[in-house]
Amino acid sequence: MADPSSYRPKPGQIPDSPGVYKFRDEHGRVIYVGKAKSLRQRLANYFQDLAGLHPRTRTMVTTAASVEWTVVSTEVEALQLEYSWIKEFDPRFNVKYRDDKSYPYLAVTLNEEFPRAQVMRGAKKKGVRYFGPYAHAWAIRETVDLMLRVFPVRTCSAGVFKRSAQIGRPCLLGYIGKCSAPCVGRISPGEHRELAEEFCDFMAGRTGAYIRRLEKQMQEAAEEMEYERAARLRDDIGALKRAMEKSAVVLADATDADLIAVAEDELEAAVQIFHVRGGRVRGQRGWVTDKVEAVTTGDLVEHALQQLYGEERGDAVPKEVLVPALPEPVEPVAQWLTQRRGSQVSLRIPQRGDKKDLMATVGRNAQQALALHKTKRASDLTTRSRALEEIAEALGLDSVPLRIECFDISHLQGDDVVASMVVFEDGLARKSEYRRFQIKGFQGQDDVRSMHEVVGRRFKRYLQEKQKSGEWTEEPDDDAPVEADGQVDPDRTAGGPVDDDGRPKRFAYPPQLVVVDGGAPQVAAARRALDELGIDDVAVCGLAKRLEEVWLPEDDDPVVLPRSSEGLYLLQRVRDEAHRFAITYQRSKRTKRLKSSPLDTVAGLGDTRRQALLKHFGSLKRLRAATIDEICEVPGVGRKTAETVAAALAGAAPPAPAVNTATGEIIEDDGVPPAALSAERGQER
């Protein structure tokens, strides 16, 4: 590990102008490339106190042995040079896209005498018309196969074309009508070029006029009793419509746009791109990247734009590029895109309408891609084994933690405080053994006390079950709640895990490792709870979300696992699952509490009559003020029920009126403001 002060340039040596800088290690290899509006200000950030740097940045500057820079004229030039150097040196601390393959395009070689439709990858060529990119080459071939019925352009290679011309016989496609056979002179070069240009126009989205023309020709053929020609035109129209159905219209006005979405966590990010041309999704692509450096969503978007358009021809850059967050600063990136295209490019975040809805779809695809990537990674037995070994080594455990339990606290501003416990065995989630807790010992928000209480309750049950003999059945207490709708949470089995014969298991075996969501205070609270119970054979650690540091009891400094560590990835996945489970329970409790009403406690009053009462009187306030005779006027409510309702509401203290903080108006008991009441109620008010 190098001392950054040993190679720090003097402030006067660094120019205060735009440029690109490179950090090199002791062997001269470039390990990081960055750009800056002011090289002096940016590089000064790397040579501050190491304690103030992000862990990944701290690792980079201590790995480096020298820094150098190149001055450029504008920020746009800096952006271009940064991309070139990243591609050239492949620095280990820059964002890297794992899926760096080239994506296939449908290309029409208009630069040839007889244009050819084919699948192409790699760098774009001058005089070739490109459509796409597509996710798979077979998708292009399916589309072209449907189109050849109407636009029988050449698709054969140069060798096949030359041989057919020499022997005077077309290939199979020429015999079955899917090629106009220019090789044997069935069509002139000019006619074939016109056919290829019509093919390109149709692929570019100008479909309506062409189909209407074919439909008109079909009707004329039918009127002239040329039924075979009419049938052929009918089949041509059907083929074109099937080709169009493969890319449904998602944006009106024949919009050309690329939509980029990012799904990320602390270690990785998934990028998804939808290519919309002529209002239709023409292609989709995506990458998964390691977050080697400390990057924001805007930084990830900038890297994606460089990856996407850095080697593309200008016509591959659309008029609009829609992103979830803008790079900072955005002007150089927008100017670079404009230069690449040769005309103005709109780089923005969609705010409303179809584009915002489509961006949400792209975002869901990114989330699914990240989840699928994590699932594949977690399902690998070798990877899981290595992760458990790394955890054991980092925490100083005698053996690998085959059973890990993680606890998390969740609340909303101190209300509805709950906790979750998730279980991982052999690196995989054991959802049947998840548990949820309500905090009983105190009121309000105190994550440390909550963690102490929950860990103590869980292991107190462990000691009780360990000492018991005979069968055990978990009592239906708050540690095994159901959802707000009364349905059992699918992530756990109420009543405890059971054997194959249906008999309940005893929850009497401990984990080798307890993980808590938090830093040193939460870890100390969990350790204290175990010590109070006399449990000294269970290891405890905490994972702090902000910097992904692992905290151990009684240690002043955290354990920093390498960013690429499979052990860190497993701990993060366990922590995130506990957080998800706690949030789900907390939201269900809050929803149930907000929907509760004094009418819920009235015996024999179901949902139908409860809704009828509220609909008749408009609010609980008016129902509380009504007489028994007035309540009896509600259809289905008898005198006995009316008396029960009146008694229940009289015993319940009326709550203080709620106030809409935005408008200042009082809200009725049923959540409806006075302005939303009926005209009759407005007059009464």
UniProtKB/TrEMBL annotation:
Bias kind Acidic residues: ranges: 472-488
Top-level taxonomic group: Bacteria
Residue numbers spanned by region Disordered: 466-507, 666-685
Domain GIY-YIG: 16-95
SUPFAM superfamilies for this protein: C-terminal UvrC-binding domain of UvrB, GIY-YIG endonuclease, RuvA domain 2-like
PROSITE patterns: GIY_YIG, UVR, UVRC
Localization (cell): Cytoplasm
Residue ranges of domain UVR in the record: 208-243
Sample GO molecular function, one term: hydrolase activity
Keyword annotations of the record: Cytoplasm, DNA damage, DNA excision, DNA repair, Excision nuclease, Hydrolase, SOS response
Alphabetical list of InterPro entries matching this protein: GIY-YIG_endonuc, GIY-YIG_endonuc_sf, GIY-YIG_UvrC_Cho, Hlx-hairpin-Hlx_DNA-bd_motif, RuvA_2-like, UVR_dom, UVR_dom_sf, UvrABC_protein_C
Pfam families found in the cross-reference section: GIY-YIG, HHH_5, UVR, UvrC_RNaseH, UvrC_RNaseH_dom
Transmembrane residue ranges: none
Stretches assigned to the UvrC family homology region profile domain: 259-530
Gene3D superfamilies reported for this sequence: 5' to 3' exonuclease, C-terminal subdomain (1.10.150.20), GIY-YIG endonuclease (3.40.1440.10), UVR domain (4.10.860.10), UvrC, RNAse H endonuclease domain (3.30.420.340)
CDD domains in the record: GIY-YIG_UvrC_Cho (cd10434)
Function according to Swiss-Prot or TrEMBL: The UvrABC repair system catalyzes the recognition and processing of DNA lesions. UvrC both incises the 5' and 3' sides of the lesion. The N-terminal half is responsible for the 3' incision and the C-terminal half is responsible for the 5' incision.
Subunit structure: Interacts with UvrB in an incision complex.
Family (UniProt): Belongs to the UvrC family.
Protein name: UvrABC system protein C
Species of provenance: Streptomyces sirii
Gene name for this UniProt entry: uvrC
